[in-house]
Design goal:
Two copies of one chain form a homodimer. In chain A, the strands form four sheets. In chain A, strands 1, 2, 3, 6, 7, 8, 15, 16 and 17 form a nine-stranded mixed sheet that branches. A four-stranded antiparallel sheet of chain A has the order 11-13-9-14. In chain A, strands 4-5-18 form a three-stranded antiparallel sheet. Chain A is 36% helix and 21% strand. Chain A is globular. In chain A, strand 4 (109-111) and strand 5 (114-116) form a beta hairpin. The first copy, chain A, has two domains: 3-198 and 370-457, Zn peptidases (Aminopeptidase); 200-254 and 301-368, Alpha-Beta Plaits. The first copy, chain A, is built from 14 helices and 18 strands. The longest helix of chain A is centred in the first third of the chain and has 22 residues, at 120-141. At the A-B interface, strand 10, helix 6, helix 7, helix 10 and strand 11 of A face strand 10, helix 6, helix 7, helix 10 and strand 11 of B.
């Protein structure tokens, strides 16, 4: 890293931390309407930061009524250099249960080298380190080493569609060579990590209908079809006790991770017993035989039941055979499964296994393909090198079992890969009380992103 | 029937109907606290009727706070004659949805020989016909032909415990040879019917716990145990798709109905297609092979799932693997199954089929044995004869798949059989809008009960 830039990052640490504390004091909870003014304040706070450091065309994009604004900025004067699209989100999860917080969620407190506050790591700390990394270049060189667009949203925690709509509608304005997404975590403390893959999702509702109206189980039990019993039967035929999904053709497009990827996962410091007992708190793990836990989580599709609607769920006993019941069932997808095809196979199989006397219908509630970036990509390679130089340790590659929809959107609408450099830690309590961000990772994040831009300029 | 009694019943029809309309105008809904004064009014209305006709020791038994009163009356001057305990209830179900009533639920209206009102058949019409039957004897003979105790409750529709507690505490005061319960229906119009058996019940909650806290299905799906999937698996192992319950030992005490009983059920005018399509509204019936529909409903035990608690059931998609989920599961019992033993077998089997990584617990919410009265019993035989003489048709015997807890209570605490003479019709809309009572059945009910008392005196 250039000496001037390095020195700037070092000597401004206290000021950078102070800036982050200000951003964390804004309770920009996206799901609660009463916090709409705070959402606006957080967006303006970041727009000001970007404007003051020297970014151009800084804009707060309001969107439709009830949508939260996007913050956009660009600097495109690095002729002949690549363009990076930088993504983050300024909205946060609600803070309840409040009584479990050691210090109030919107009065950031520092203890043991951590900042405790709602949004500390998810994602304000990571958004702010991106800003400070850019600021360093303007302050020391008057310019950025590459072209940069910044797009920060305020609806990530509510699955809002503003950013999707905007990206789909403005592929030219957002034209870039790659995206940098800072909204993930490191595999373990001190272990620089890039996330190279995400699972996709097909989330469905499966409704089973039997009688024309609710029935009394005394009067009709033994002859009338029961839609809850039917759903239980069908779920058993969708996934066996061995974790194998029984939908014909379900696995046919599943692509194995590369040998290198598998080998690198084996080297990760993963303790299965700790994962089971401490992280999950159970006595046994489940899943497909012949695959390691990390493979099952990152590289194998799965099917889960999330809830049953219908019937009686109150206190006490009600002897009802409900007329209808609905199960929420999702499937996580891996490359190269096609969500549309998966839903088609699922629907056809559901029809086939519907017990007699039952009418079923399925609908899809959300759907996204898996995404994976090759570790050979120059965008990933530079990210790995930048992190390695800052953390003084070899960067590891992991995948995530979850989905970050924006990564799919960038891929689909802009045709660009996303580099997921994350600086969170596994115990940072995302979405939970006492969310934190490890302060050394905040500083190293600034440096790693600064170094990444330098490397991309070479 | 004695001519004087017959004439009395005939000439007082209009007055009897008018009295019933008065009782039906009292909205004695037991589940709604704001109707507490109406509950009291209905109890007083009946106490007055009983007192005025000549019954002795008429008493309104208040019970504990929040309990609804019992109405008690007795007349015990028929030396050497048997004693009959007459049961009914004066409370009714709520009337909603109100907009579906053709005439207001508490403004009884007469259309096509039916009285439409909430409580018309369940159970005010049947309670009132019992009173009018007794009144006829006092008015024409100044006495009853047998000894009679009357016990009417106000908590039947809410499953209240007042009457159970009272019967258990006062076996001497309630000493009788048999009970007469008028709270059932006829198998078909014009077909005099006595219900001779009821199924018992073991209603349970089965809880499955997995992780220490809710998990994100993206992050953990494929390795973490899912309690909803586990419950679906277990339900499949409790009851097969063929309706067979798989709990070891479950069927061992099941007693077949007698050959006569089975033969009599075969003669009942039962149309399986109508039952399936019109009554239930489905395309196929389910249940154990080798048993007729009526056998499956009345003489075979069953197991039903009523609801699942836990997980996500709101609108939209939430990718949660819940830490715990609870299923409501009940079993209907037939003679001679023992509820305690059934629960023991169930609990042991649940433990055995609990999948790895899951901790289960079961608890029983309510429990009652099946009951059956022999059609040879003199109490039943006299009832059948009385109904036959009034309806001019042979009385049929049916069972019911449901439970009437008071019948078990009388059996257990007083050691007496219950004779269930019912005058409702299958389409009387119990618990639903436009509840009705067929007026000719009200009159025939008065006569049949009068004749029953005469026969018991012989």
């Amino acid at each position: 890293m250039s000496t001037a830039l390095f020195d700037y990052y070092q000597t401004n640490r206290e000021r950078h931390l102070e800036g982050l504390l200000q951003l964390l004091r804004i309770p920009s909870i996206s799901t609660l309407p009463e916090h709409k003014p705070d959402i606006r304040r957080a967006a303006e706070f970041l727009a000001n930061e970007l404007r003051e450091m020297g970014m151009k065309n800084v804009e707060i994009i309001a969107g439709k009524e009830n949508q939260h604004p996007l913050v956009y900025a660009e600097w495109l004067e690095a002729l002949g250099k690549p363009t990076l699209l930088i993504y983050g989100h300024y909205d946060v999860q609600p803070a309840d249960p409040l009584e479990e917080w050691v210090s109030p969620p919107f009065e950031p407190a520092i203890r043991n080298d951590n900042i405790y506050a709602r949004g500390a790591v998810d994602d304000k700390g990571q958004v702010y380190l991106l800003c400070k990394a850019l600021e360093g270049f303007f302050k020391t060189q008057g310019k950025l080493p590459i072209n940069v667009r910044v797009l920060i949203e305020g609806e990530e925690e509510v699955g809002g569609e503003h950013i999707d709509e905007y990206v789909a509608a403005h592929p030219d304005r957002l034209k870039a060579d790659a995206a940098l997404v800072c909204d993930t975590e490191m595999f373990a403390p001190e272990l620089p990590t890039i996330t190279t893959g995400l699972r996709g999702l097909v989330y469905t509702e499966l409704e089973a209908r039997a009688a024309a109206h609710d029935l009394h189980s005394g009067q009709y039990g033994g002859a009338a079809p029961n839609p809850m019993q039917a759903l239980a039967e069908m779920i058993n035929r969708l996934k066996g006790p061995d974790g194998k999904i029984l939908i014909p053709g379900f696995y046919k497009r599943v692509k194995k991770p590369t040998a290198q990827e598998l080998a690198s996962w084996k080297r990760l410091p993963f303790n299965e017993k700790n994962f089971m007992k401490k992280e999950i708190g159970t006595t046994a793990l489940v899943g497909e035989k012949g695959f390691s836990v990390l493979e099952r989580l990152w590289a194998r599709p799965t099917l889960e039941v999330h809830g049953f609607r219908g019937g009686f769920t109150g206190e006490g006993a009600k002897t009802v055979i409900p007329a209808a019941s609905t199960a929420k069932i999702s499937m996580r997808l891996v490359p190269d499964m096609n969500p549309k095809e998966v839903f088609r196979l699922y629907s056809a199989y559901v029809k086939k296994i519907t017990p007699k006397g039952i009418r079923t219908s399925v609908r899809v509630l959300s759907s996204a393909p898996a995404s994976v970036v090759s570790t050979d990509s120059r965008w990933i390679a530079a990210g790995a090198e930048a992190m390695e130089q800052v953390f003084k340790k070899k960067t590891v590659f992991m995948r995530s079992g979850g989905s970050i929809p924006i990564v799919g959107t960038f891929q689909r609408c802009l045709k660009i890969p996303s580099v997921m450099m994350g600086f969170g830690l596994p115990d940072d309590n995302l979405h939970a009380p006492n969310e934190k961000f490890h302060i050394p990772n905040f500083y190293r994040g600034i440096e790693a992103v600064g170094r990444y831009l330098e490397l991309l300029a070479q």
